[in-house]
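QA checklist item 7 of 12: single-chain prediction sanity check.
[x] sequence parsed
[x] length recorded as 274
[x] structure emitted
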Amino acid sequence: MIALLEVPSVQSDTPKLRLGGMALRNGLLVHGPRQWAVAIRDREGAIKVVSGDKPRIEGAITELPGVRGVARLGEAFALLPLIKRRVPEVQLPFEDVKVAAAMVASTLVSAAIRRGGGRTAGKEGAVALLSIAPTALALRDSDLAAYHGVEHKAIAGYEQDTDAADAAKEHERCGSNLVAPMMLSTVVGNVLARAVLKARGPIASAAVTVGSAAVAVEILAWSERHRGSTLARALQVPGTEMQRLFATREPTTDQLEVGRAALAEILRAEGVAR
């Protein structure tokens, strides 16, 4: 929910690069079709910019509905260890002892809930809510929330041909907009897998997780293509409110400068003239 997603694009007469991104605790990651760029503010106050080739999941199957979204998510998360090696100073969103402890606690409590009696939609809903607790804790960090705002404003500024400072800090492709469809598909998937199919164990859980992510990304893509419809607006309300209330903050001038540096570098690396 601190990442901007490269969901399947909407047709446009003036196509632009489909950019994704991720807020860092000390800067911003932006990635395009073939390249990635990171800009961070180092301990001395200078902006450090690094870019490189993006890992790609290739093949015709990766463009199929239900697969393409998971493939793009996989590419984005495959970047993290690569970037950490290239830029050791990068502070990743979940690189925090409290957040790591929350992830472990969430997993243990979820397992305890599932062991206690039948597999009901209510229990699976509670487990789904617990799964977002580590992200909510991470976003209590004001710098991370501010760089989440930088991520949205920098990319929206490029998409709208305006300066980042003038763009909104909420964005319709934010991963927070996956919350409602992801929770719904996860609850339905787990009830079907555990109560109906009697499937158990890590393989069943992994299958439900991947399937739910695939469904959620396709719903988000549909919402973007039909952004004027009542249903599309309703699906985005939970994520937009999360962004407005706590997941993003208005960044400082210095933080926006980091965002502009990351955007300029990804466009340079992708060979796009501004």
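[x] summary fact logged: The mean pLDDT is 83.
[ ] second reviewer sign-off
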